[in-house]
Design goal:
By secondary structure, the chain is of the alpha+beta class. 32% of the residues lie in helices and 30% in strands. It folds into 2 domains: 108 residues, no CATH class; 156 residues, Beta Polymerase, domain 2.
Length: 291
Amino acid sequence: MTPAAGLSLLGAEARLPDDDPEAVLAFYGPLFADLPAAVPPSGELTRLLAFQAPAGDGATWHRFGIEAPPERATWDLRPPAVHWDWTARDTAGRTLGGYRLPDGRAFEPTGAAYVAPGGPAADDAVELADYDPAWRSRFEALASWLGGLAEPDLIGRIEHYGSTAVPGLGAKPVIDLLVEVPSFVEARRRLLPKLLGPAVEFWWYDGHLVVVGRERPLGRRAWHLHLAPIDQPVWRGLAFRDWLRGHPEDAARYAALKRELAAAHGADRERYTLAKGEFVGQVTRRAAAQP
């Protein structure tokens, strides 16, 4: 096991209900802004890290912090203060892993992103673009790259996912790939470290792992990998994609909704995504009901 030397975080902890996305947004939202400002500027990138542990009774322990010197840290995550169940290194040599506290809580990583202490945040504004036929070629290039990077038993099916996979539909110019992995455990421990680095982050989002590739560190998003076993709910999104491909009237309604929501929530990507949920759910259920 790779030693987890030097990993200490300045952050906050909360026990949150699993079925309350507003509570989750209220916890993480301010921290995204406050934590990078809490560490003195150094001219170098550091990381935001998120961890979760089961709390029982429909709740989860959430920890979210920024790497900081031990004297400023909320949590010293070096042994013997914690027991690391597993560790790995990302492409920049930084620690990723799961750890266990003396009270028995076992935390797994649910997010990692490089940030500039005291500097600007990553550019995550929602900006829609007209459909671009080149999006298909970008998907194929990314699928080929991923297939060459991962060990043969780590990934299976790869699908072009989301709005860029629907010809004629305007979208954020971010290519989404839905990737089959054998398990979340294997994906976290064996695949994520091969992907993550200063321009690549990940988040546990909507019950699956989302890897975000940026054009450069702190730059615009370029692609997403949605990693999940084939039996997970995220795969139902293919029914939504296929319905829109065959029903241009619903694709047009979806395009109009996205323009409206981008105008209302362009600076808040999470609320923009949540606001689309009702329409996506209705269409997906309609598609699933078809013979």
